[in-house]
C-alpha cells in the first residue's frame, strides 16, 4: 500500500466546532472475551448510533479494507519508498528495489546490499538511511514486526516504536496499524483529509487536530471505520481525489 503524502497539519484558529450528538457509548469490556467485530459490522453499529454515519453508509457503501498481501517489513519498505512520490515513479523505484533484493524483502537482505546499490534503484539518500535504520531496529528488537508478538503490543506502543525509525512518522505508523495490522480503533487526527471530511459530513468548520481527537471519542472502539468514512466524505462532499485508502 502506498504511503500517502499528507503533510502534518498546522494548528488552526478555527472556532471550536459544536460537538454533535454523541452516539451511544461502546459497551464496557465484559468479563469474557469480546466477540470480534468486522469492519462492516462496525459500520452498521455506528450507523445505528449516528444518523450522519448512516447517511455516509448509504452514500459510500460499507467500508473496504483489503486483506494484506505482504509481510509487515515489506509493507513498511513500500511505505518509505512511496513517500512524496507520484504513483508511477514510486512503482518504478519500488520495482527496481525489489529486483535488487532479489525479492527477498527481509532486514538481513536489505542490510547486505551496499547503500550505493540501493541508491542506484532511484531511492534518495534519506530513504536509503530510513530503510537501513528500519532494518537495524527490527533486527535489534527495538521495533517489533513479528505478527505473534505484535498481537500483544498496544496501538500506542507500536506507533511509538515505529516513530523512532528515521523517516517514519506518526501518520505512517497509524496507516500501518489500520491497513496492515487491521486494528479497529485507530484515529489519525493529523490527517488533513479526515479533518476536512469530518467537518463536511457533520456540517461544522474543519476541526483542528485537538478538536478532532475529542470528536472521535464517542466512536470508540471503531474509529478506524469512522476515519474511512471521513476520507470518503472528503471525496463525496469536498471533491477530494480518490486515494489508496478508500480504493
Outline the secondary-structure elements:
Elements: H1 39-49, H2 51-60, H3 72-82, H4 87-100, H5 107-112, H6 115-119, H7 125-140, H8 147-150, H9 155-162, H10 170-180, H11 192-202, H12 209-215, H13 223-238
Task: Write a structural description.
The chain has 247 residues and is mostly helical. It folds into 2 domains: 89 residues, Orthogonal Bundle (Endonuclease Iii, domain 2); 109 residues, Endonuclease III, domain 1, CATH 1.10.340.30. The protein has 13 helices and no strands. The protein starts with 38 loop residues before the first helix and ends in a 9-residue tail after the last helix. The relative contact order is 0.17. The N terminus is likely disordered.
Query: N-to-C terminal Cα separation, in Å?
Result: 11 Å
Order of helices and strands: HHHHHHHHHHHHH
Count the strands? 0
Secondary structure tally, helices: 13
Low-confidence stretches: 1-22, 24-33
Short description:
By secondary structure, the chain is mainly α. The chain contains 13 helices and no strands.
Kindly list the characteristics that best describe this protein:
247 residues, mainly alpha, Endonuclease Iii, domain 2, Endonuclease III, domain 1, 2 domains, 13 helices, disordered N terminus
Amino acid at each position: 500500500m502506498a504511503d500517502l503524502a499528507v503533510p502534518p497539519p498546522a494548528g488552526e484558529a478555527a472556532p471550536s466546532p459544536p460537538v454533535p450528538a454523541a452516539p451511544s457509548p461502546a459497551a464496557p469490556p465484559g468479563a469474557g472475551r469480546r466477540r470480534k467485530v468486522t469492519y462492516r459490522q462496525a459500520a452498521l453499529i455506528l450507523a445505528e448510533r449516528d444518523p450522519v454515519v448512516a447517511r455516509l453508509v448509504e452514500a459510500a457503501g460499507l467500508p473496504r479494507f483489503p486483506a494484506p498481501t505482504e509481510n509487515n517489513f515489506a509493507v513498511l519498505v513500500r511505505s518509505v519508498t512511496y513517500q512524496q512520490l507520484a504513483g508511477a515513479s514510486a512503482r518504478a523505484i519500488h520495482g527496481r528495489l525489489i529486483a535488487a533484493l532479489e525479492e527477498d524483502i527481509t532486514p538481513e537482505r536489505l542490510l547486505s546490499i551496499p547503500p550505493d546499490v540501493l541508491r542506484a534503484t532511484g531511492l534518495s539518500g534519506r530513504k536509503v538511511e530510513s530503510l537501513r535504520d528500519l532494518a537495524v531496529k527490527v533486527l535489534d528488537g527495538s521495533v517489533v514486526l513479528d505478527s505473534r508478538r505484535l498481537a500483544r503490543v498496544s496501538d500506542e506502543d507500536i506507533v511509538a516504536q515505529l516513530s523512532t525509525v528515521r523517516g517514519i512518522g506518526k501518520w505512517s505508523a497509524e496507516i500501518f496499524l489500520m491497513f496492515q495490522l487491521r486494528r479497529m480503533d485507530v484515529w489519525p487526527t493529523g490527517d488533513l483529509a479526515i479533518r476536512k471530511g469530518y467537518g463536511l459530513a457533520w456540517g461544522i468548520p474543519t476541526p483542528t487536530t485537538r478538536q478532532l481527537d475529542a470528536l472521535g471519542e464517542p466512536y470508540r472502539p471503531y474509529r478506524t471505520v469512522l476515519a474511512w468514512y471521513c476520507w470518503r466524505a472528503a471525496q463525496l462532499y469536498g471533491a477530494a481525489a480518490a486515494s489508496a485508502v478508500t480504493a
